Amino acid sequence: MNIGWLTLTLLLPFVGALATMAVPKSKALLAKQVALGFALATLVLTIVIAIGYHRNGPADYAEDVTWIKAFGAHYALGLDGVGIVLVVLTALLTPIVLLASWNDAKTGRWSEKSFFAWVLGLEMLSIGVFAATDVFLFYVLFEATLIPMYFLIGGFGGAQRSYAAVKFLLYSLLGGLLMLASVVGLYVVSAKHGDPSYLLADLVKVDMSQNTERWLFLGFFFAFAVKAPMVPFHTWLPDAAAEATPGTSVLLVGILDKIGTFGMIRFCLGLFPEASKWATPVVLVLALISVLYGALVAIGQTDIKRLIAYTSISHFGFIVMGIFALTSQGLTGSTLYMFNHGLSTAALFLVAGYLISRRGSARIADYGGVEKVAPVLAGTFLFAGLSSLALPGLSPFISEFMVLAGTFSKHKVIAVIAVLGIVLAALYILIMYQRLMTGPVRDGIEKLKDLNYREVFAIAPLVVLIIGFGVYPKPVVDIIKPAVESTMQQMGVTDKAPQVPVTEGQK
Amino acid sequence: MSAVLMPLVAQALPLADFVKPKIEYNELAPLLVVFGAACVGVVAEAFLPRAYRHLVQVALAIVALLAAGVLTGILMHDKKSLVAAQGAISVDGPALFTWIILLALTLISVLLFAERSIDGGLSAFAGQAAAVPGSEAEREGTAAKVEHSEIFPLTLFAVGGMMLFASANDLLVLFVALEVFSLPLYLLCGLARRRRLISQEAAMKYFLLGAFASAFLLYGIALLYGYAGTMSLPGIADALATKTGGDAILLAGTGLIGVGLLFKVGAVPFHSWTPDVYQGAPTPITGFMAACTKIAAFIGLMRVFYVALGGTRWDWAPMMWVVAILTMVVGSIVAITQTDVKRMLAYSSIAHAGFLLTAFVGLAQSGSGVTSGITSTQAVLFYLVCYGFPTIGAFALVTLVRDAGGEATHLSRWAGLGKKSPLLAGIFAFFLLGFAGIPLTAGFTGKWAVFTAAWTGGAWPLVVVAVLCSLVAAFFYVRVIVLMFFSDLPADSPDVALPGWQTTTAVALGLAATVVLGLVPGPVLDLASRAGEFIR
């Protein structure tokens, strides 16, 4: 058998990480170039896969090898519309992060090359998570992503990095271990129906009692809610994002946290449809709280990176809301939101990182009048901020709109209250911009340098994509839609609601 | 009652005509080889000149362990499963599997015992155990590089006892085996070259508490004999099935036997010896005990409770639930407060005993029709493999971090070790991640197996407690990683000794087991599954 496309996509960053580590310490530049090269190659490969997927469908990319027979575990990879979008996002953000963090690892505890190697390792595991079609494999990779992230935060962050890294690890492990209980439970349920198997395709067919389904659902959901993160399990994110380097924060919020929402679609909705419907009211309220609480707390932050972290909590509230609205529009919107949020938050974190590395402080109060000194930096920051608050014409707008519209069609009250989140988003972004960039030039800002070519080059693809998909989101939506429809079908829910007003209107 | 007992007693009494007992020498060969080599070792100790003893003893031990391993392998290949030696010993799948692990782990331990390059050409053991600590005689012995090469025959006796313990089909054999493996261990614990007083204290504690536990076990055996009129495990099972009345004596006997066995397992509330003994014993011995004693004790425990007392499982299972929960909770929470690496690993081994107990209590047996999936026996055997190799590896690493007073085991001394020796700190961190059960390590697959067995048997609340305790456990493992990698190196940091090939081998095997069993556990799982159930 040939090596599958997806396996190749996993191997490439892994080999890259090893190659990066193999470069002697004295040649730090070479190591970084090697890492970037592998990251770019992975990006090219995933784009090829995405194009092929768009043309020929998912069949070409399914892989399935029995891994541990006694556990019913398979090395099974496959793509659906949701998975491919996130795989591409991962492959896209990794080289951007590497380029943008070119010098950030210099002040770390370990050599620069280890930062680059960890990032590539994280890329490999994340792609695996999004491509796994076996619950056991997913779980293993899901937990394994913690290790590189732990060392990225703990090794290369700010003063409180050890604390933040341990907090991140323990929160994630709490969720992960409860999920382990559910994963074990799935095996037992599956073993009762003959040969145990962790393949998603097999597990979908397994009947379980209502109670079992609900308990297992809770185990999975809790893990994903911690990961996403939803209020009240969110407190690790601001600490981690504030202490990590901007590049690490991008990977954390842009990719790793997506595993939470991705897991909700693929595992909560896919395996426990009944329980998902049962949990909908509570989840929607939690999501709503996340949207509003995240936004409100963001407004009050004095640290740039913490502020951005809280905005993400608000955004993740929207994503979860769209997922559990259980409408095709909401689900499509949420998936699109995951992609767009990855782009806009990456832009915001990276530009903020440029700013912070120049001044050496993350406190908002230390800045003022930056736009007079460094107009390009201020401009890109404004652009990233506007995309984050979902300005029409930029890609996050479409997804946010779809989420709200999808939610509205079934849960009017929730959607109406959630709209407040958009208003608050305008507040936290614009107030931050005002404090940082406008007004008189503060002490210590006068000699701030504007962006250099490398920095512009790293951020440019994000800007282009945000505008491009803001104007023409169809390619992504086309890829997502079939997956969403099949999930809806599996759950036995339909989009009756949107058609009702139309017929009523015609009467 | 006496009417029921009489025929059984009559059967057990020796007949007037002497009948030659039937001994299955082929099946018992591994045991005989180990015990035989141990005896030869004792003789060699008496007759060989001092200069040759160390070499001969090491060679003898290694050859004996390898030979026994090969013989066991042949038996496994032939899928032997029978009750041998007139019903005293059962050579069945689980027993053979246990033998193989015990022999392999002992082999690694023997290599560690023989290591001399770490402490300036001296082994980790006292030159003259009889010399008063700190005395002139001790200094002279050290200067002359005197050694106790008795440790190797003692180890062989210990491992032979463990093998016998894991395959005892009769309560008396079980007791004899327990003593055979315990007594050498008491001695070995007191033989540390450095910090001899703590070492002797550990040996004393272990001996007193161990003797106490043996008394419990023996009393339990007596009561069970009083109930069933036989010492043999299947005989007790038969009595349980047919007999009515006498429940009080049965329950009391079950409880007392449970205390004796749980003491060896290191389960709460019978664990209090573990940290002191683990800390005081010479570190290679600690590794040997942590891995091998636990394995033997666990299999013995399972054999007694599954084979003999399976019929009253509803009576003892609730008690074991409580013990399992206590063991996991106390082991993982108290570990957080430890400031010594060896004590921390001791509490971690207690927590691991708790995880193993969940599978034991789960009672997922293929015979009982509960499952088509993983059975408790398979899960426990697999977990013991996953736990044993890294444990010895981790203790081997502990021997390498040294300062002027010997091993620097205080956790604060390990600060910044990642800077001093990235390799050692990295491997130790990997072992810790394995113990914490992070995926892609053996710890994870092992945990998965025991949790699954527990849940399959319906003990899902135990699984939930276990995952929460795993989180607590992860915290103290990660704390050490933080200490090693994220703290600054103090000025007077301990040195990292250059290991000889023996220690390197032990660490490498632990590392290999952690990686391989984490990635491709299939073959070992199959082997454990082929071991099947305990025969009656």
Automatic annotation (TrEMBL), chain A:
Key word Protein biosynthesis present: no
Residue ranges of every copy of the NADH:quinone oxidoreductase/Mrp antiporter transmembrane domain listed in the record: 132-424
Cellular-component GO terms for this entry: endomembrane system; membrane
Regions that span the bilayer: 6-23, 35-53, 73-102, 114-131, 137-156, 168-189, 215-237, 278-300, 307-326, 338-356, 376-394, 414-433, 453-472
Any one Gene Ontology BP term: ATP synthesis coupled electron transport
Alphabetical list of InterPro entries matching this protein: NADH_Q_OxRdtase_chainM/4 (IPR010227), NADH_UbQ_OxRdtase (IPR003918), ND/Mrp_TM (IPR001750)
Swiss-Prot/TrEMBL keywords: Membrane, Transmembrane, Transmembrane helix
Membrane topology of this protein: Multi-pass membrane protein
Pfam families in the cross-refs: Proton_antipo_M (PF00361)
One Gene Ontology term of the molecular function aspect: NADH dehydrogenase (ubiquinone) activity
Keyword Cytoplasm: no
PANTHER family found in the cross-reference section: NADH-UBIQUINONE OXIDOREDUCTASE CHAIN 4
Family named by the database record: Belongs to the complex I subunit 4 family.
Protein name: NADH dehydrogenase subunit M
Upper lineage: Bacteria, Bacillati, Actinomycetota, Actinomycetes, Propionibacteriales
TrEMBL record, chain B:
Segments passing through the bilayer: 28-48, 55-76, 96-114, 151-168, 174-194, 206-228, 248-273, 285-306, 318-337, 344-364, 380-401, 422-442, 462-486
Protein origin, superkingdom: Bacteria
Any Pfam family the entry gives: Proton_antipo_M
Cellular location(s): Cell membrane; Endomembrane system; Membrane
One example of a Gene Ontology biological process annotation: ATP synthesis coupled electron transport
Classification via InterPro entries: NADH-Q_OxRdtase_suN/2 (IPR010096), ND/Mrp_TM (IPR001750)
Known catalytic reactions: a quinone + NADH + 5 H(+)(in) = a quinol + NAD(+) + 4 H(+)(out)
Keywords, in A-Z order: Cell membrane, Membrane, NAD, Quinone, Translocase, Transmembrane, Transmembrane helix, Transport
A GO term from the CC aspect: endomembrane system
EC class name: translocase
Residue stretches making up the NADH:quinone oxidoreductase/Mrp antiporter transmembrane domain: 168-470
Membrane topology: Multi-pass membrane protein
MF terms (GO), sorted A to Z: NADH dehydrogenase (quinone) (non-electrogenic) activity; NADH dehydrogenase (ubiquinone) activity; quinone binding
Coiled coil feature spans: none
Principal localisation: membrane
EC code: 7.1.1.-
Subunit note: NDH-1 is composed of 14 different subunits. Subunits NuoA, H, J, K, L, M, N constitute the membrane sector of the complex.
Family affiliation: Belongs to the complex I subunit 2 family.
Purpose: NDH-1 shuttles electrons from NADH, via FMN and iron-sulfur (Fe-S) centers, to quinones in the respiratory chain. The immediate electron acceptor for the enzyme in this species is believed to be a menaquinone. Couples the redox reaction to proton translocation (for every two electrons transferred, four hydrogen ions are translocated across the cytoplasmic membrane), and thus conserves the redox energy in a proton gradient.
HAMAP family: NDH1_NuoN_1
Protein name: NADH-quinone oxidoreductase subunit N
Gene assigned in the entry: nuoN
